[in-house]
Amino acid sequence: MALEPKDVRRAAHLARLGLDETDADRYVDDLTRILEMADHLQTVNTDGVAPLAHPLDATQRLRADEVTETDQRERFQRNAPAVENGLYLVPRVVE
Amino acid sequence: MHDMTLTELARALEAGEFTSRQLTESLLARIERFDGELNSFISVTAEQALAAADAADAARARGEAGPLTGLPLALKDIFCTQDVKTSCGSKMLDNFIAPYDAHVVEKLKHAGTVSLGKTNMDEFAMGSSNENSHYGPVKNPWDLTAVPGGSSGGSAAAVAAGLVPAALGTDTGGSIRQPAAFCGITGLKPTYGRVSRYGMVAYASSLDQAGPMARTAEDCALLLSAIAGHDLRDSTSVARGVPDYRAELGASLSGLRIGLPKEYFGDGLDPEVETAIREAVKVYESLGATVQEVSLPHTHHAIPAYYVIAPAEASSNLSRYDGVRFGHRCNAPADLEDLYKRSRAEGFGDEVKRRILIGTHTLSEGFFDAYYKKAQQVRRLIRQDFMDAFEEVDVLMGPSTPTPAFDLGANKDPVSMYLQDIYTIAINLAGIPGISVPAGTVNGRPVGLQILGPHFAETQLLNVAHQFQQVTDWHQQRPAFGKENA
Predict the structure, then answer these.
(1) Domain of residue A21, residue span
(2) Band of the pLDDT at A82, cuts 50, 70, 90?
(3) For residue A24, what is the domain's CATH number?
(4) Is the pLDDT of residue B309 over 80?
(5) Contact A56 B455 (CB under 8 A)
(6) pLDDT confidence of residue B258
(7) Is the pLDDT of residue B47 over 90?
(8) Which whole number is the average pLDDT over A43-60?
(9) Which DSSP helix (H) or strand (E) runs through A74?
(10) Spatial strand order in the sheet of B257-261
(11) Average pLDDT over chain A, rounded to whole?
């Protein structure tokens, strides 16, 4: 299926990935060719075949709802670009 | 020392021929001398390595040495390593100092190994040539104009050049086996769930698996016993005992049933690679194995299925890089959306962006059933192909790659690059284990024989590879690069 620049811009917005116009045009070609390759899947008969999400068909393990993690906020926030009083700083969201 | 296997080094350390500190210093000197050209390391952790070597020597002096004590190795820069930069080959994580150890790193430290550093890789493990690294391409020590393969290209090149005897890699679509083949070393992708993914930067979570890369199957067995095992912090880690894989080596191959998938010997396979693989199969016949042709009818749908499933999982996994909690952040964002969009645009490279865009598109409303669900249905058929084949044969054999290592810059088009993974990718979709062993050279570039087995057949795969290495010497050949001492 051929993509249009607007499809690429839509995906980029959904992924919060900044793309300028020239980028979007460049990706249209690449992504179209990748999707054309993926379109070969449509030739496979999959009637009645259940999707396989996990190669060993395992299901999600459950555990008791208990606190097991210790508080390591300071340690983890050492990697943050901007923090104040233990909070992550972002541009103002609420006026 | 730099030519020795882990097994030989362990014996020499035990016999007191040299200390772990002497060994570590000698390898660090080699990295200093040769890696400027090879570019196989992103970070060399000399100080930590020497401290670990001293601790290992002290443990040995106290009589507390285990099988891995004092052995040097390297870690693909995808494994979180406490207080060490863990970049995953990306500008996005160039400033990320991991606050904790990955499960496998924890296990290797506990076993007394000495990590020399973090190896180069394709950004977020997306690539087959190591040309997608933010830190520049790695070169193949067999031919500096060739790629080492990817994404674990740094690990493979470092082992091949004798900078380190073994390294850990990860394999989502061939990222251990393909670079192992291109660099003439042995690399094992274990069964999905055999090794914990905790602390391994995620690419495609239903496919990612860590494994050993070394000079011999015996060394891979030694390392796999050290890193495998159940871990509650990875919900897909399998609760199943870990054998001493090395102790299991030695069984006769008499009566072993080998299947050659006819789809792995078709169009696109380099004829000289095919000759090398067929010669290797003859070696197995001389060891008492029987050979028959089998079919994996959905082989040609594996690449399309993978390039739907892996980017879909990647687009979800990589949404965590938001410029807020860790990783790259753009300058002076106008608002929160600008912060997200510019941080991600600046932090990610081209191939990562392509995969995020494809994954986001195929998961979006109106496309999910046609692409993602369909690919997962085909994934079941691909797995069924293998299960059917393993009713008839014990292992499957074929080439690891359609050609030997290609030239740097030769595959500019993403789709032609994806087609390089034709023989490795289905194995991840099926979750089965696979190993690549050196089986010849073509124009001075190594050829890898791939051996596949059913889920949790690592013991058998390692032995089948080991028996080959008892009667052939392809794994002992070394490139001219790095031959001299540091």
Answers:
(1) 1-43
(2) very high
(3) 1.10.20.60
(4) yes
(5) yes
(6) 98
(7) yes
(8) 91
(9) helix A73-77
(10) B41-44, B114-119, B72-76, B166-170, B210-214, B186-189, B434-442, B445-452, B395-399, B257-261, B290-294
(11) 92
Amino acid A1: pLDDT: 67
Task: Say what percent of chain B tops pLDDT 90.
Answer: 96
Per-residue pLDDT, B211: 98
Q: How many domains does chain A have?
A: 1
DSSP character at residue B200: B
Peptide bond into B151 cis (omega under 30): yes
pLDDT digits (tens, 9 = 90+) for B253-294: 999 999 999 999 988 999 999 999 999 999 999 999 999 999
A59: contact with B, CB 8 A cutoff: no
Find the CATH number of the domain harbouring B153. 3.90.1300.10
Residue B97 to residue A82, Cβ atoms within 8 A: no
Domain range for B233 is 6-256+466-476
Q: How far is B74 from chain A (nearest CA, A)?
A: 24
- pTM, two decimals, is 0.97
Interchain proximity A51–B353, CB inside 8 Å: no
Give the residue from A7, A10, A17 with the most B CB atoms within 10 Å of its CB, the best one to mutate: A17
Smallest Cβ distance to A52: which of B334, B379, B432? B379
Q: How far is B152 from chain A (nearest CA, A)?
A: 23
pLDDT value at A69 more than 90: no
Give B139's DSSP letter: P
The pLDDT tens digits for B188-222 are 999 999 999 999 999 999 999 999 999 999 999 99
User: And the tokens for B233?
Assistant: 């912090």
Closest CA to B172 of B133, B211, B214: B211
Residue at A53 is within a domain:
no
- Answer whether B301 touches A (CB < 8 Å): yes
Per the listing, tokens 């067929």 go with B278
User: How many Cβ atoms from other residues are within 10 Å of residue B484's Cβ?
Assistant: 9
Nearest chain B residue to A16 by CA distance is: B341
Residue B193: inside a domain: yes
With respect to residue B422, please indicate whether it lies within any of the assigned structural domains.
Answer: no
Neighbours of A47 (CB within 10 A): 5
Q: What DSSP letter does each residue of B444-486 carry, written as one string?
A: TEEEEEEEE-STT-HHHHHHHHHHHHHH--GGG---STT-S--
Residue B404: phi, psi to the nearest 5? Answer: -70, 180
Query: What stretch of H or E contains B214?
Result: strand B210-214
Query: Inter-chain contact B337–A16, Cβ cutoff 8 Å?
Result: yes
**Residue B483 clears pLDDT 70, i.e. is over it:** yes
Q: Residue B311's closest chain A neighbor by CA? A: A34
A54–chain B Cβ distance below 8 A for any pair: yes
**Mutate which of B303, B322, B357 to disrupt the A interface (most A C-beta within 10 Å)?**
B357
Catalytic residue among B151, B152, B225, B436: B151
B150 within a domain of the structure (yes/no): yes
Residue B65 within a domain: yes
Query: B235, A90: Cβ pair inside 8 Å?
Result: no
Catalytic option among B20, B129, B155, B175? B175
CB-CB under 8 Å, B308 with A52: no
Which pLDDT does position A2 carry in this prediction? Answer: 77
Number of domains in chain B: 1
* Closest chain B C-alpha to A26 CA, distance in angstroms: 10
Suggest the residue from A23, A40, A52, A56 to mutate for an interface test with chain B (most B CBs closer than 10 A): A52
Q: Tell me if A46 and B374 make a contact (CB, 8 A cut-off).
A: yes
